[in-house]
Amino acid sequence: MVKLGNDEIKCIAMFEQLTGVSAEDCFIEPERVSFVVKPGDAGRAIGRGGETIRRVRDAFRKQVEIFENANTLEGFVRNLFPGVRVKTVSVREKEGAQTAHITVEEKDRGAAIGRGGEKIKLARMMLSRHYGADLKLL
Question: How many independent structural domains does the chain possess?
């Protein structure tokens, strides 16, 4: 279970009011806010032609990212990299700690890492927060 502070609860309430979609988690950074929604709800949160997500970005005055939760760790890892072709996800356990090893198409490697490593850092944090697992990009 993810523990939320007052700022996260306020952001989730505002997000839900603007989109009509329930958020399960929120992570606030100086330049962006990331939300985790139930499986299948990302499209509703984005809206037709991106109209809803634009309204949310305007309200928060930050970049807003939406990730769908999943029923499995592997599914959640894939959802953390929208627009990136994830070839494989394998979960390995060593001394009680889980690590998800992913491989991506070579041309998508930069997109998976992000400028300054921002996307991979966010994915690692979200995976740790939701599953207590680490992430390795192979």
Answer: 2
